[in-house]
Design a protein that fits this description.
The complex is a heterodimer. By secondary structure, chain A is α/β, with parallel strands linked by helices. Chain A contains twelve helices and ten strands. Chain B has a two-stranded antiparallel ribbon. Classes of the chains: A alpha/beta, B mainly alpha. At the A-B interface, helix 3, helix 4 and helix 5 of A face helix 9 and helix 10 of B.
């Protein structure tokens, strides 16, 4: 069992059992088991086309899937994206999906829409926290999202997701296409989010950085979990080092 | 043509133009949020005007039955869905919005019909009857097709228009109606007389446009509508339901349509099918704005009103032809200046 393999026994926030996703006749995920504990950072690494984005989309309810997805103690066969958001699951997709013709501030406000619609308040506090975490967004608050640089867009996508105060934040390639310096900044921010108690499911091609920040890791290959284990073990695993970290194992 | 006639025609054109502006804005809104080209918009204009006319004659308007029938259908659909999901909250909401509320409105209409209450009360009742048909229509005809292509949605839109026009004939008959003016006042501005009703049209349109602007730029629900139009996937990931946004857009469009009908009912005789032509002229305005830009659509619609007014003076037999021919140079110009974007499938 995964839970026994984890360092500390924590309540799982997300449990996925036997997840299967197909595009027509082609199966993208065969049988995936995955657990994220409350407050944990869990990473899924793997090469292009391994099914990482498919996995997140299925958990979010963007794609139909077979298998069991249990989130925050609730099991549901037919999940809809909007219901998952209300329950506390937020996805930052690879394409960010920002509202390009709207201001940074409006993008952030809309991040809190589900909470607002549910009658919860505290928008201004959440916004102040986001601006404290991302001072750059504060400087650009009236600027249109479409005019931001790549790094700023990544920050806005993260900030917008945090406005929902999620229980589990799913990040799809947050560092994709960014300059190395910005990538480091983004991973710093992800590590900082640990203090907020938000659990994070991080999908990355940048395996080295992901394993450094995560507690637990899964290696996905062509729709199956190849190896799983505590992040430091995976980082030391010579097989993974060779295929995903670009290090030749010492002979 | 002397100056006095020119000013009189301008006044006429601006009055009709103001109505076309409202309809054009509603069309752009509905298209941006749901990708539906809202042809039944005109029926809402006619239903608004004719419902008010029925109240004015001390009769129970037929649209009450349409409201009750439509609400009952939505209630059925929602109840089945709620049962399948075992979602009692959804059932309760459906009972409230599609059971209790329409029943209350119908009851009030039935009670008020014979009393011939004051005009503002009649207007409020007419809006309460016609506006809920917007979300009802969306729920029944368009929400199940939310992922369909623009062409499929257009065909459904035409079908809905034909069905509603037929129902309009059934409920209101073939005779036209006119309602009393909001105000009988005549104001003299130098050379020309401006009717109080025209001023009502200008004023109400301006207030409505301002209200829409405030709604979209200040309220989070307004921004959620814009967000759905800008990026549907992004909006869903924020928990903004496409069905909520669509229902809200249709509600606003229905309100704008019905209110436009009420505004022009004292100026023109409205028949069950008059709305269609009025709606199409709003559509020409919306096309000028490429079904995307609110200010350009508004300008285009105002231009349509003015051209129509002057055309009816010089070549009254061709006034509709001239107005609708306007769409050809506009489309030519747009096809030359804008880049074609393939629709996402």
């Amino acid at each position: 069992m995964n839970r026994q393999a984890m360092d500390c026994l924590v309540e799982p926030i997300l449990t996925v059992r036997g997840l299967k996703v197909s595009y027509g006749k082609v199966a993208a995920l065969h049988h995936v088991d995955l657990t994220v504990g409350a407050g944990q950072i869990v990473t899924v690494i793997g090469s292009n086309g391994a099914g990482k984005t498919t996995l997140l989309s299925a958990i979010m309810g963007l794609l139909p899937s077979d298998g069991k997805i249990e989130f925050a103690g609730e099991c549901h066969a037919r999940v809809e994206v909007e219901d998952m958001v209300v329950r506390g699951l937020t996805l930052v997709p690879e394409k960010r999906e920002l509202f390009a013709s709207m201001s940074v501030e409006d993008n952030l406000r809309l991040g809190g829409f589900a909470r607002f619609a549910a009658g919860k308040r505290g928008h201004e506090t959440a916004m102040a926290e986001v601006f404290q975490r991302f001072p750059r967004l504060n400087e650009r608050r009236t600027q249109l999202a479409g005019t931001l640089s790549g790094g700023e867009r990544a920050m806005l996508a993260l900030g917008r997701a945090l406005m929902a105060r999620p229980k589990l934040l799913m990040l799809d390639e947050p560092s994709l296409g960014l300059a190395p310096l910005i990538v480091r900044e983004i991973f710093h921010i992800i590590a900082d989010l640990r203090d907020t108690g938000t659990a994070i499911l991080l999908v990355e091609q940048n395996a080295r950085a992901a394993l450094q920040v995560a507690d637990y890791g899964y290696v996905l290959e062509t729709g199956d979990v190849l190896i799983e284990g505590p992040a430091f073990e995976l980082a030391d695993n010579p097989k993974i080092a060779e295929s995903y970290l670009g290090i030749k194992s010492a002979t | 043509m002397d100056l006095q006639i020119a000013l009189l025609l301008a006044q006429d054109g601006l009055t009709n133009g103001a109505i076309y502006v409202l309809l054009a804005l509603a069309l752009v809104l509905v298209f941006a949020v749901t990708r539906v080209i809202f042809i039944p918009q005109g029926e809402f204009v006619a239903f608004g005007a004719l419902t008010l006319a029925a109240f004015d004659n001390g009769k129970l308007p037929g649209t009450v039955w349409l409201l009750l029938g439509g609400a009952a259908l939505v209630l059925l659909v929602e109840a089945v869905a709620a049962r399948r999901e075992r979602n009692n909250q959804r059932l309760a909401r459906a009972l409230l919005f599609y059971g209790l509320l329409p029943a209350v409105v119908a009851g009030a209409a039935w009670w008020a019909a014979a009393l011939k209450l004051a005009l503002p009360v009649q207007i409020a009742l007419s809006l309460a009857i016609v506006v809920p048909m917007g979300p009802i229509l969306y729920r029944l005809a368009f929400q199940p097709l939310a992922e369909a292509s623009v062409l499929v949605l257009l065909i459904v839109s035409v079908a809905v228009h034909l069905a509603l026009a037929g129902l309009g004939l059934f409920f209101f008959g073939a005779e036209g109606s006119r309602t009393p003016a909001f105000s009988e006042a005549m104001l003299k501005f130098g050379e020309i007389n401006v009717s109080g009703q025209s001023l009502w049209v200008y004023g109400s349109s301006a207030v409505l446009i301002l209200a829409l602007y405030v709604f979209f730029s200040r309220s989070l629900y307004g921004k959620a509508l814009v967000a759905t139009a800008v990026n549907r996937t992004g909006a869903r990931l924020m928990g903004i339901r496409t069905s909520m946004a669509g229902g809200l857009a249709f509600t606003l469009a229905a309100a704008i349509g019905a209110f436009s009908g009420i505004l022009i009912a004292p100026i023109t005789t409205i028949f069950y099918d008059t709305g269609f032509i009025i709606g199409l002229k709003g559509f020409v305005g919306a096309i000028v704005g490429g079904l995307a830009s609110y200010p350009v659509a508004a300008g285009g619609a105002l231009l349509v009103g003015l051209i129509e007014s002057y055309a009816s003076f010089w070549a009254s037999a061709f006034k509709e032809v001239i107005v609708f021919t306007l769409i050809i140079p506009v489309l030519l110009w747009r096809s030359l200046t804008t880049h074609h974007i393939e629709e996402d499938e």
